[in-house]
Structure formats: structure tokens, C-alpha cells
Predict the structure.
Amino acid sequence: MPIDVDEVRKIAKLACLNIGEDDLQSYATNLSNILDLVAQMNAVDTTGVTPMSHPFDVVQRLREDVVTDFDRREAFHAIAPKTADGLYLVPKVIE
């Protein structure tokens, strides 16, 4: 799918990109090459191919789900400037 320089200008404007006039042709060529590659990949018959999340047959090592931290709410409330009913009190910022 060939992309011309005018289309690159439109895409650059929509994407808020500043592309120099001397670079427009190389962008058009590169984008055309990318779209040609995508078209080639779409043309491949993948019927019967099982989707996979990883190219290798590996098992993810998982760690045991163990609590490693403890409740420090009381310690944090003790050093806070103002608290009430388990909440931190902060100054009003919106009138």
C-alpha cells in the first residue's frame, strides 16, 4: 500500500508532528514498507494455528503468596499532623 508525501503531511498534522520537507519522502517510503509487510503477514493462512503467549514451552516460576509486610497504620498515624477516626486530615484546598 503506497503512501505518498501528501498523506504523510496529513498524518503528521493529525499526530501534531513537525516533519521537515526534506524528510517527507523517506517517511513515505518507510511507512509504505511497513504497510506492505503488514499486508504480507495478513495474507498468511493461519487456519489451525493455535495462538500462544510465548514462543517457547516454558512454565513461569511463581513465588509463594506470603505476607511480607505488616500493618503500620498506627505508627503512621502517630507521626501525622492531624488524624481523626483512622483518616488523615488535610487542609481544604478547594473553595
Notes: The beta strands are 83-84, 87-88.
